[in-house]
Design a protein that fits this description.
With 271 residues, the chain is an alpha/beta fold. Helices cover 35% and strands 27% of the residues. A hairpin with an 8-residue loop joins strand 9 and strand 10.
Length: 271
């Protein structure tokens, strides 16, 4: 089953995406740091005001019809989809009888929900729950919430109101101060499915803590960033989850690494 899923997902990738995966450039990182505090002192931080303001304006432009989707505060004029991510969403909806209840941890102002809403409209029941920093939650509730889109400041408040079928971790875990503590906690939540996406894994060696520098044409910022040992990352889920499929993600970096994703199922049996 695992090999079959990998083959299907690879075939879904359009040629332009395959070329991007192997092109030079990408995320620029500098330095090796012994602690989050040290890396934080050498960077601007992820909660900088200009990041928040640009993300908020991009979402306003999106809802005003001046673009088709937003990612990392950048507004896009034409559709662009991450097909493995969409495949995972649709697969979970299918095995759950046409219902999709997502806990999107670190989902900004609903970027992924709005990016894929044209596909989600054909799913019988959809609930999309974003867990974010408080200022993002406040802005989300005020301007961007919808009938299917909700915002929460933490996992506890979200899980008190709903029971998600899928935990989405897209481009977020490597920006956490203590990612392994979070992963251990996430694995204990018992959410039936976990979808990891846009996560950097080192080609060899232990976890690396560095500082990522954002290209100035997006916004001027830098923040701590982890590159993971793959085995240690997924070990948190090994007692209760099976990896159904893995795939390459769109991102790349100047660190010897591979940005990847995975679909995990609670208590499943992968061939």
């Amino acid at each position: 089953m695992l090999k079959t899923c990998k083959k299907v997902i690879k075939e879904l990738l359009p040629p332009v995406v395959v070329r991007l995966l192997h092109s030079p450039g990408g995320v620029r990182c500098q330095g090796r740091y012994a602690s989050w505090e040290e890396a934080r002192a050498a960077s601007d931080g992820y909660d900088a005001d200009d990041i928040f303001e640009k993300t908020k304006q991009a979402m306003r432009d999106l809802l005003a019809g001046r673009g088709v989707f937003e990612r990392d505060s950048v507004l896009f004029a034409s559709p662009e989809y991450e097909w493995p991510l969409l495949s995972g969403l649709m697969w979970v909806a299918a095995v759950c009888g046409g219902r999709l209840n997502v806990l999107d941890f670190g989902g900004a102002l609903g970027s992924t929900y709005y990016q894929y809403r044209r596909f989600l409209q054909d799913v019988a029941q959809v609930r999309w729950n974003v867990v974010e920093q408080q200022h993002m939650v406040d802005a989300g509730r005020e301007e961007f919430a919808a009938d299917q889109l909700f915002f929460y400041p933490d996992l506890t408040s979200c899980l008190a109101e709903t029971s998600p079928q899928l935990l989405l971790l897209s481009g977020v875990v490597h920006y956490l101060p203590d990612p392994h503590a979070f992963l251990a906690h996430a694995a204990r939540l018992g959410i039936p499915y976990v979808l990891v996406d846009r996560t950097p894994f080192l080609l060899r060696g232990d976890d690396l803590l560095t500082v990522q520098h954002v290209p100035p044409d997006i916004y001027r910022a830098s923040y701590p960033c982890w590159f993971f040992n793959r085995e240690r990352f997924f070990e948190h889920f090994s007692d209760s989850y099976e990896i159904v499929a893995t795939f390459q993600a769109l991102d790349r970096a100047n660190v010897p690494s591979s940005f990847e994703g995975a679909i995990l199922a609670l208590g499943a049996e992968a061939d």
